[in-house]
Specification:
Blueprint: E1 2-13, E2 16-28, E3 33-37, H1 44-52, E4 59-67, E5 70-71, H2 77-83, E6 88-91, H3 95-98, H4 105-116, H5 121-134, H6 140-143, H7 153-165, E7 171-175, H8 183-200, E8 203-208, H9 211-217, E9 220-225, E10 228-234, H10 235-240, H11 245-252, H12 256-263
Parallel strand pairs: 3-8, 3-9, 6-7, 7-8
Antiparallel strand pairs: 1-2, 1-4, 4-5, 9-10
Helix pairs in contact: 4-5, 4-7, 5-7
């Protein structure tokens, strides 16, 4: 579904071009989850923004981002707008800034439905309510009229998921969807994402600095540092037998108990207790 080939992204600065993504390549199939992991500033979010055609002003991208054979970098802005939301959805890193503080969450979910389909206002609102139920917002009939500041961080993140899912995209990009959430809410958000991949068969790119999150949900993992690929492969292999010294350093930075949990085999692989 997605084939990224030799992607490079650079910003114009007074001192010249500053490259933040350098010769990055990866693929993603339908129904597959790719985890992209690395420290802050490694280029994870810029890669996601390039894939969806939302790079900030002053950025220049080279290479190819083939979505079902169409190069996102070669499309016009109008053509990219037709794909965003309908075919490609994105959950942004900080829901408080991604959501419009002057609109109710129901109106924000319904906006994309009305923009891309012939749904009436009432039909779009009904679909927004169904989406709030799907992402497990408590009391959705009341919360549909709430403004973002009236919701908790976890609830705002679920609204962001609902917006991204409104048109049932084929590709979903989740940029740090569990950042600043407590452990129980993190688990609920990851449960929702796993269910969506299983039920809808969509492809998921999960961006995170948390190796525990990546281990929980990703089929394959791409490790980035300074805009470059350090290693890429099946998540179990990358975390248990890292080929890159940088991946080993990321694992070593985890608390001992968390590191032991990543290294231990799944329950089905362990020998029964005697």
């Amino acid at each position: 579904m997605l084939d990224v080939r030799s992607l490079s992204v650079a910003f114009h600065r007074p001192e010249g071009l500053v490259r933040v993504v350098d010769d990055l390549s990866f693929t993603l199939a339908r129904g597959e989850t790719l985890g992209i992991v690395g420290e802050s500033g490694s280029g994870k979010s810029i890669t996601a923004l390039a894939a969806i055609g939302l790079l900030p002003r002053g950025a220049r991208a080279e290479g190819q981002i083939l979505f079902e054979g169409r190069d996102m970098l070669a499309l016009s802005e109008r053509e990219r707008c037709a794909l965003r939301g309908r075919r490609i959805g994105m959950i942004f890193q900080e829901p408080m800034t991604a959501l419009n503080p002057a609109m109710t969450v129901g109106a924000q979910i319904a906006e994309g439905i009305r923009l891309h389909t012939s749904a009436t206002r009432r039909e779009a609102r009904a679909e927004a309510l169904a989406l709030l139920e799907r992402v497990r917002i408590p009391d959705p009939a009341r919360r549909i009229n709430s403004y973002p500041h009236e919701l908790s961080g976890g609830q705002r993140q679920r609204v962001g998921i609902a917006i991204a899912l409104a048109l049932e995209p084929d590709l979903l990009i989740a940029d740090e969807p569990t950042t600043a959430l407590d452990v129980t809410v993190q688990k609920e958000v990851l449960d929702i994402l796993e269910e969506l991949v299983d039920e809808l068969g969509l492809a998921l790119i999960l961006i995170s600095h948390d190796l525990g999150v990546i281990a929980r949900i990703a089929d394959r993992t791409l490790v980035m540092l300074r805009g470059r690929t350090m290693e890429e492969g099946p998540t179990e292999r990358v975390l248990r037998h890292p080929a890159s010294s940088y991946t080993s350093e990321l694992l070593a930075a985890l608390p001992r108990r968390a590191r032991a949990g990543l290294a231990s085999p799944p329950a089905a692989d362990r020998e029964p207790a005697r």
